[in-house]
């Protein structure tokens, strides 16, 4: 049976009209995506295209991590619609960051993970970053990227880590990086780098408060991050 085109659907069943009548929470992921795709798609059943796109990727998290090139190859999408989707997901991540406030208090691993999660989980590779804090544990400025790549293959030199902290007159720092595999369990290299930086911070009178590694949650592992301080690695 041929799928019903959007223009042939009853007005009350079309995504935009349903959103106006029932609110955004009444729409499925596929219907919301259909609203983004609708403009300029003549005769296409964009609701079906949206639903199929969500089904192929499985989760919105996976869909949000897709590049525009990958999305453009999907049936019924093309370059223009792919860019529209990438822009929408980018705005969502910026909104999450904005709601955290200009200067959030980062006094727990959970607070650090909440701040960094959206950016970290979409990255295809590891990124090592430093958060600079004042004496009240409030974030100073933006996170500072130190290096790309696994800690086995990148050089994380104390000079590069503490220079931005010294420039900002930070009282403390938090180390953060992601594990694209999804498993946030620290490697031996993660532990060694952490201990080396703790010792360097003691010499500079800048406390290393924690090293938070962000992965992905699973049924067996409901928390998507680990704290090396909580795991007991913060001794020298």
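-> sequence recovered:
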């Amino acid at each position: 049976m041929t799928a019903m085109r959007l223009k042939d659907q009853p007005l009350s069943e079309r995504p935009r009209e349903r959103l106006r009548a029932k609110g955004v929470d009444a729409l499925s992921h596929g219907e919301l995506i259909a609203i983004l795709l609708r403009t300029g798609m003549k005769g296409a059943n964009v609701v079906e295209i949206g639903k199929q796109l969500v089904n192929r990727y499985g989760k919105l998290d996976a869909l949000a991590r897709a590049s525009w090139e990958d999305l453009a190859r999907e049936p019924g999408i093309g370059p223009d619609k792919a860019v529209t989707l990438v822009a929408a997901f980018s705005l969502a991540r910026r909104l999450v960051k904005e709601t955290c406030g200009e200067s959030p208090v980062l006094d727990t691993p959970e607070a650090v993970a909440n701040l960094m999660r959206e950016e970290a989980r979409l990255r295809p590779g590891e990124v090592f970053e430093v958060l600079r804090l004042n004496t009240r544990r409030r974030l100073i400025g933006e996170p500072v990227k130190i290096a790309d790549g696994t800690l086995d293959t990148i050089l994380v030199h104390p000079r590069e880590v503490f220079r931005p902290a010294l420039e900002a007159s930070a009282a403390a720092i938090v180390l953060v990086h992601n594990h694209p595999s999804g498993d946030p369990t620290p490697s031996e290299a993660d532990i060694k780098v952490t201990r080396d930086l703790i010792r360097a911070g003691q010499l500079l009178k800048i406390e290393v408060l924690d090293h938070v590694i962000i992965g992905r949650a699973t049924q067996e592992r409901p928390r998507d991050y680990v704290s090396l301080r909580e795991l007991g690695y913060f001794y020298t």
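DSSP finds nine helices and five strands in the chain.
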